# Entry
Amino acid sequence: MRVLLGIALLIAAPGWAQTNDPWKPLEFLVGEWTGEGGGGPGQGGGGFSFQFDLNKTVMVRKNYAEHPAQNGREAFRHDDLMVVYLDESSKKPRAIYFDSEGHTIRYAITTSGSAVVFESEAGEPGAHYRLTMTPGGDRVKGKFEVKAPGEAQYQTYIDFAAKRKS
# Structure
């Protein structure tokens, strides 16, 4: 009986370790990514990276999007930085986002199937944001949504896909 219990514990241990690793659902994001698709008139390009830092105590995303001139608007580049960290009390991943347009967004992070969902905190004033990233081998699909103040539903701002560079 003890032998069976010991074998059962050895078999269960790797799964237990995986479910207790708060970074596991985010690991598919690690690497460098290049935006793909589109290519039509007025569409831009971009890419992003996710890397662990500080001995795997944070994950850093750097993102850029290049927007071509169109409709009388000059071409411009958007850059942003997101730091994912483990909340000290809950030990769950959270994130804080900064961009070149002066936005700061605090995100709660959840999973839905294999997707990772970054959703701005409910108590924040103004618009709310949701970024969903879904793995697909050497590709990732994403959707960025915005919910205006007073609105009940999110509206899709951009759907995107990216291919892993490294």
In short: The CA atoms of residues 78 and 89 lie 33 Å apart.
